[in-house]
Design goal:
By secondary structure, this protein is α+β, with helices and mostly antiparallel strands. Helix content is 16%, strand content 31%.
């Protein structure tokens, strides 16, 4: 494991998505740590290389071993469960089913564990679970779309658990590249 990025927000420009992805280089796996302005500490593990995806291809990637975690809440792990992906598959099949069972092209649902779009400066863990929208000062979180642990969907828990509020600013970030040897 090698620290590839560290930022402490003491004014000035916050790192944007491009800065973060560049720092990750060709790491196949990565560990992220964040602290928000209201002192919530959380992180994420990604099992795939972060790189911009082809313009005409899917922006989503990643596998079932990805997870979010909260240090603030006693090291609680929030695994990837893909609920939003399953809902989108069901919706696509229902909306696009033809007499022969549907248009296979329209039924292809891209992975949503991880997502990056360098052109628009968006980096996501899940559909809505943790999003960096341009830079570390413009983040948001609503859990239980792709990651979670069964939080009630009818209260504030999904929007406040990870970072204390739905929209937040990260004041600290460390990222580690993970290189496994055989």
């Amino acid at each position: 494991m090698h620290k590839c990025f560290e930022w402490v927000g003491a004014g000035g420009r916050a790192p944007c998505v491009n800065d973060i992805v560049s720092a990750l280089g060709n790491a196949e796996e990565a560990l992220f740590l964040f602290e928000t302005a209201n002192n919530h500490i959380f992180g994420a593990y990604s099992d795939s290389r972060w790189q911009d995806r082809p313009e005409d291809g899917p922006k989503g990637f990643g596998g079932r071993s990805c997870f979010l975690f909260s240090i603030t809440h006693n090291n609680t792990m929030l695994p990837y469960h893909g609920r939003s992906r399953a809902k989108r598959i069901a919706y696509a099949r229902g909306q696009h089913a033809g007499p022969d069972g549907g248009d296979r092209k329209k039924n292809v649902i891209e992975p949503d564990a991880l997502y990056v779009d360098i052109e628009n400066q968006v980096m996501k863990f899940g559909d809505t679970d943790f999003i960096i929208d341009y830079d570390l000062k413009t983040c948001r979180s609503t859990l239980e779309s792709s990651y979670g642990m069964g939080l009630p969907l009818d209260g504030d828990a999904t929007t406040t658990f990870l970072a204390g509020t739905k929209k937040f600013e990260c004041l600290f970030c460390e990222i580690y590249q993970i290189h496994r040897t055989d």
